[in-house]
Amino acid sequence: MRLDCLGSGNAFSFGRYWSGFLLDRHILLDCPPQTLPHLFQLGVPSEEIDLMLLSHAHSDHIGGVDLFLLDAVYRTWPRRTRPLAVGGPPGIYDRLREVIGESERLPPRDDTRITWFEGGDGASFEWAGATVECFEVEHDPALTSLGFRVHAGGSVVAYSGDTRPCAAVERLAEGADLLVLECGVGTYHFDWPDVLALRSRLPASTEIVVTHYPDEGADAVRGVPGVRLAEDFGMYEA
Ligand SMILES: [Zn+2]
Ligand SMILES: [Zn+2]
Fold first, then answer.
1. Helix (H, G, I), strand (E, B) or coil at 40
2. What is the pTM (predicted TM-score) of this model?
3. How many A from CA of 36 to the centre of ligand 1?
4. Hey, where are the domains in the chain?
5. Quick count: other Cβ atoms within 10 Å of Cβ 86?
6. Is 90 exceeded by the pLDDT of residue 160?
7. In sequence order, which residues have a C-beta less than 8 Å from that of residue 65 and are 6 or more positions away?
8. pLDDT tens digits, residue range 17-68?
9. Cβ burial 133-159 (10 Å sphere, 16+ → b, else e)
10. How far is the CA of 187 from the centre of ligand 2 (A)?
11. CATH topology for 2-237?
């Protein structure tokens, strides 16, 4: 699988874009505000996106959904040859409705143009040649946050979303070829020593790509085998 980084920062890392990734040029791992222009820069038409996986309802992860749908509904629906699906934690549709309001650019939940997969820990579904498993991770207690494990083309990419160290991340990482791991630093996030501790527990066959990180402290993982710091527009393979 090919992974393109749409952004490697968190809500407070000015200078890098908000964290998000593009998997095999058709699956979005979160939809930060800059998603649409960065897809254009990568030469990926937005109508090529088959699946959008939203880890949780914080703005740095869903801030681009409104603009993506605006583009979809008013420009690209006629060109779409495949339907769009959105996966996320329970309540993600209602949260997007709150953000977007009553505009038609968020179609009704039963509109056939978008299929919604809302599920908690243990949920899984198949879409566009990929199998997605959902893991409930520990982040903001006010909402449900998911990590995703995506199986496609014989490889496994795990995506932590935002989380502090917890058992679910260990389950999520199990057998993954590549783990995209957040390091937001703070109460509800991984910190640099947590990244190193997890690295020491995972097999060498699982590569870690750190995202959603501040610049401060990043030297702690530079040069560590099996750990890479995501860079905006960086490309990774699993
Ligand atoms: Zn975040
Ligand atoms: Zn968050």
1. helix
2. 0.97
3. 18
4. 2-237
5. 22
6. yes
7. 31, 52, 54, 96, 99, 100
8. 999 999 999 999 999 999 999 999 999 999 999 999 999 999 999 999 999 9
9. bbbbbebeeeebbbbbbbbbeeebbbb
10. 11
11. Metallo-beta-lactamase; Chain A (3.60.15)
Q: Where are the beta strands (DSSP E) in the chain?
A: 2-7, 20-23, 27-29, 51-53, 84-88, 114-118, 124-127, 130-137, 145-152, 155-159, 178-182, 207-211, 227-229, 235-237
Tell me, in angstroms, the distance from the centre of ligand 1 to residue 78's CA. Answer: 33
| Number of residues that make up the chain | 238
- Separation between Cα atoms, residue 203 and residue 181, nearest integer Å: 15
How far apart (Å, rounded) are the C-alpha atoms in residues 191 and 203?
20
Name every residue whose Cβ is closer than 8 Å to that of residue 160 and which is 6 or more positions away in sequence.
Answer: 137, 147, 169, 172, 179, 180, 181, 182, 190
**Ligand 2 center from residue 205 Cα (angstroms):** 28
Q: How far is the CA of 100 from the centre of ligand 1 (A)?
A: 19
Computed over its alpha carbons, how large is the radius of gyration of the chain? 17
Distance CA 9, CA 15 (A): 8
